[in-house]
Amino acid sequence: MSKTKWYRDGLKFSCTQCGNCCSGSPGYVWATKEEIGRISEFLGRSDGWLDSKHVRRVGLRYSLTERPDGDCIFLKREKGKGTCSIYPVRPLQCRTWPFWNDNLRSKVAWDATHETLCPGMNTGTHHDYVQIETVRTQKGWK
Question: Are 53 and 45 spatial neighbours (Cβ–Cβ below 8 Å)?
């Protein structure tokens, strides 16, 4: 099976803390009720929930909110670096970056994302095929 994937020999990725994956055009960072509970607990809230400053309802789902400039509400920018203020409990969508299906669709898609958004792609730590597939297909917290 791995012979059919263009990334069968693995890919390099190391986060540069640029913050680009947590900013930009409006979009959605999906969070389950379980993830919202973890974030709430991490933030020291006793009610197990987040207010509209942090999370919004989109149909039947929930998404983290964004600041007017497109930054995720939990993105901190300090000294030229972008870090996540809820990193240990960030949603699965965040945990699986950059090994998303859209980015792995083709080498062209991967390289385009590297060029336009993520300087950490194609650099740093080598992730083998099994590691990539484990992240890509993850359905929840372990």
Answer: no
CA distance 20 to 73: 13
- Residue 89 has a CB neighbour count (10 Å cut-off) of 19
Please tell me the total count of domains within the chain: 1
Q: Please, which pLDDT band fits residue 123 given cuts at 50, 70 and 90?
A: very high
Give the whole-number percent of the chain exceeding pLDDT 90: 92
What tokens appear for 100 in the block?
């998303």
Domain that holds residue 74: 2-136
CA 43 to chain centre: 19
Judge whether 10 lies within some domain.
yes
Q: Vertex 21, ends 15 and 22: CA angle to 5°?
A: 115
Residue 133, both tokens? 């597939």
Residues 58 and 67 sit within 8 Å (Cβ to Cβ): no
Residue 37 and residue 91 in contact, taking contact as beta carbons nearer than 8 Å? no
Average pLDDT, rounded, for the chain: 95
Give me the pLDDT at residue 2, please.
47
pTM as predicted:
0.90
Helix (H, G, I), strand (E, B) or coil at 107: helix
The helix/strand/coil state of 75 is: strand
